[in-house]
Each structure stands twice: as structure tokens, then as C-alpha cells.
Amino acid sequence: MHKIIYILLFSIGLNVIAQELDCEFIVIAEQTGNENVQVFKTLEKQLKEFVNNTTWTSKAFKFQEKIECSMVINILDYNSDTFKATIQVQSSRPIYNTSYSSPVYNFNDKDFSFRYLEFQNLVFNPNQFESNLVSVIAFHIYMILGFDSDTFELNAGDIYFKQAQEILNYSQQSGFSGWQSKDGRQNRFELIDNVLSSTFIPIRSSLYNYHIKGLDLMISDSKLAKTNISKSITSLADLNKSRPNSFFMRVFFDAKSDEIQDIFSDGPKISISETVSVLNRIAPMHSSKWRTINF
Questions:
Q1: Average pLDDT in the 216-240 region?
Q2: CA distance 47 to 25
Q3: Mean of pLDDT over the chain
Q4: Quick one: which of 17, 152, 156, 231 is 20 to 30 A from 146 by CA?
């Protein structure tokens, strides 16, 4: 893997604020034993067209402003029009004056079952449940839009997170799992509940400072950028004391752990012993990465 600092210093790109989506879909069906069945290829094609051709916001977007993201659907089992699956959702945003894209959202949604007939119309209604397939996809689209907006303007993702919450609210009556607190922890319900809770504002603030005052300054002043990224991480220590092992914190570091490891293992040296100590406390699941950081 190329080091983040190296990429940032030697890449040239456009200064853009990404919004709408350029989303890649992959449907994997190996576990069904029938991965070559045409319905899986049709589903993949339809979802890509549906997501990338639907207008999800009221803003106007240029081609180069689209958010790069991907959704990998792993079909575990199916019977006629009923599918049991998981979906891995990832998104990234461009960094100022570079061609580097920083990972922002990385979520493995394991509560994903749906009904689908080949070539059926996929329609999104912001106020009404149409199908669990559409609801889950749309929910994650608005999470992507929300997190992306938060990296450019403090709490600017609220409008999109509230739409994700609206999708959750009307999908709770569908009978599909992942939409309610009783379905267990680390699902869509807990994620949006955390994101919109005032308790977890420090994570959203950290996400903003990490990008605007950190990565976006890497070309002009990499030492200051690293210092600000370090501050954005250590600012989460107090939250972790009151809400240890929170799901939102885990989602944050699932997206950022590899990048953080690279940032602090290369480029100009700064004092990060406290940062590494905090990382080990607030994101112990990535401790093997923190051990490789040189300081």
C-alpha cells in the first residue's frame, strides 16, 4: 500500500465538493451454489442504474462532484423471489488539490433480506415503504450523503440523516429485520440513533476537523495537517469514557483505521504518543494497526 502522505504530496486533482453518487454494485452469489443464475446479474445491473439515475437531493451536481461509493451484496440463500444476504457499503470523498479519495463510510449490514422478481421496477418513495430492497439501499445512500456532507461543513449532514431516519421509521412496520432496537445491536436502528443523538456530536465534529483542518491541508502544510488530525482523534477520549465501545465509534474507525495508520507512519514527525494511547483505548479492535505506528 502506498503511504498516504506520499500520495497526497505527489498527486494532482480537482478541488471539488462531492455530493450525488457514482456507485458501483457487485452481487456475489457463490454461497448459493448457483452464482451464474441470470437473476443475480439482472439485480446487479438494475441496482446500479436505479441508484445512479435517481435524483436523491435537491441540489444540482456536476459529473466530477459525484460521491464515489460501492455496495457489495453477498447472497447467502434464495428461494424463488426471497433472498437472504448481507451488504457492504463504502464511500469516499476527494481531498483538496489531490487525486486521493479518503474513506468516509464503511458499514457491513448483515440484516438484509428482501423480495425481488427479475426486472421488477425499483421505485423510491421518500415517505412510504415500497420494498425492503429499496429501503435498505436508500437508507445507506442517505447515510453516505450525510457523512460526506459532514466532512465539508459542520453537521451539514443532518438533512440526509433525517431522511435516513424517516426511511427507518416507515420500514419498521415491514417485518424485515434491522429496523428496530429489538433486532439486536449494530444494525441500522442503532446507527442512525447514534448519529442523530446529541451525545455523539463529538464524532461528527471530529469527522469535520479530520478532513477540513487535516487532510485538506496536507498539500500546503502536512505537519499542521497531521497535528490537527491528531487533535481530532484525541478529542474523542472524553466521549469514550461516557460511552465506551459505542457503535458509532466503531463505524468511524472501520472507515478510518487504515488511513490513520498510514498518516502517522510516514511524512513529517509530530508528537503522537498521546494519540496512539487514545487510539488503543477508543478503538482497541484495531490495536494491531496502532502497534505499527512509528513515533
A1: 97
A2: 7
A3: 92
A4: 231
State yes or no: pLDDT of 56 exceeds 50.
yes
Same-domain pairing of 176 and 94? yes
Domain interval for residue 280: 201-290
Query: Once rounded to an integer, what is the mean pLDDT over residues 141-160?
Result: 97
Domain membership flag for residue 99 = yes
pLDDT value at residue 18: 37
For residues 70 and 96, state if they share a domain: yes
DSSP character string of the chain: ---HHHHHHH--------EEEEEEEEEE-GGGT-TT-HHHHHHHHHHHHHHHHS--SSS---GGGEEEEEEEEEEEEEETTEEEEEEEEEEEEE-TTSS-EEEEEEEEEEEEEEE--TT------TTS---HHHHHHHHHHHHHHHHHHHTTSTTTTHHHHHHHHHHHHHHGGG--TTSSGGG-SSSHHHHHHHHTSGGGHHHHHHHHHHHHTTGGGTTT-HHHHHHHHHHHHHTTHHHHHHSTT-HHHHHHHHHHHHHHHHHTTSSS----HHHHHHHHHH-GGGHHHHTT---
Number of separate domains in the chain: 2
pLDDT at residue 295, rounded to an integer: 65
Structure confidence by residue, pLDDT tens digits, 270-290: 999 999 999 999 999 999 999
Write down the pTM of the prediction. Answer: 0.92
Last-in-domain residue among 196, 215, 235: 196
Confidence at residue 235, expressed as pLDDT on a 0 to 100 scale: 98
